[in-house]
Amino acid sequence: MLKDNILVIAPHPDDETLGCGGSILKHKYNKDKVHFLLITNAYLINIKKKPANSYFKQIDRVCNYYKFDSVNKLNFEAGELDQIPEKIFIEKLSNIFRKIKPNKLYLPFSGDIHSDHRKTFDLAIAGSKSFRHNYIKEILSYEVISETNFSVSPATPSFKANLYEDITKFMKKKLKVCNIYKTEFQTHPFPRNLEVVEALAKLRGSESGFNYAEAFMIIKKIRD
After folding, report:
1. Angle at the Cα of 165 (from 142 to 201), degrees rounded to 5?
2. H or E segment to which residue 98 belongs
3. At what angle do helices 15-29 and 52-66 cross, to 10 degrees?
4. What are the beta bridge partners of residue 10?
5. Is 181 helix (H, G, I), strand (E, B) or coil?
6. Nearest to 179 by CA among 204, 198, 199, 202
7. Which of 184, 156, 173 is nearest to 10 (CA)?
8. What is the per-residue burial (b if ≥16 Cβ within 10 Å, else e) of 101-123?
9. pLDDT digits (tens, 9 = 90+) for 167-201
10. All domains in the chain, ordered by first residue
11. Could you give phi then psi for residue 124, rounded to 5 degrees?
């Protein structure tokens, strides 16, 4: 059976872990190749709140924990993606696609409340057209606590899971990765905390017959 060559795209550090951390660990366990693309550098707008050394070290620790096959960073300023010319954004994404040649993409959900998430989704979709990158066969959207579930506009589409990944064997490790993000996680009732991460995985597991699961929306799937 052919192994997957996967690119996980995260607008900000921790999106990848919240959205598909268990699936990343499962892919690595199954000997798939998993590459990471971090779109923004959140430190640029949090310089007074986040000491540089601890901020960058925790990202390095997370990447080392996952053992990504490559780590790629665009270093756009967080919260400012709407101001980046789309041509530049798509060109940078396309360069990453050509370098890695992934067959599967993980993206944030198009209806997330954060504009960086929406922009990342829209331009990744625009930049991954099959006539440009015919090796991309599958695109999945992941959900992010405090972004996906905080979009309450009636005009915004809701996240409707149509794919569930059993992460029961990897739940403890996912929580360990979450615990590395000291600057991004706080105590309950702040939405990004270990209790909520575990609760969501239990909820998705209850919907799919597993102890713990991650949920996704299939955006595109091409079969040869």
Report:
1. 70
2. helix 86-100
3. 30
4. 38
5. coil
6. 198
7. 184
8. ebbbbbbbbbbbbbebbbbbbeb
9. 999 999 999 999 999 878 888 888 889 999 999 99
10. 5-221 (3.40.50.10320)
11. -65, -40
| Residue 167 · residue 23 · CB < 8 Å | yes
How far apart are the C-alpha atoms of 38 and 66, rounded to whole Å?
14
| Local confidence band at 114 (pLDDT 50, 70, 90 cut-offs) | very high
- In terms of Cα–Cα distance, which of 24, 5, 1, 43 is closest to 135? 5
Q: Which two tokens stand for residue 72?
A: 């790629």
Query: Is residue 94 within 8 Å of residue 127, measured between CB atoms?
Result: yes
Residue 14 CA, distance from chain mean position: 8
Kindly report the length of the chain. 224
Residue 37 pairs in a beta bridge with 9, 72
Sign of CA dihedral 33, 176, 74, 163: positive
How far apart (Å, rounded) are the C-alpha atoms in residues 143 and 138?
17
CA separation for the pair 124, 90 (Å, rounded): 7
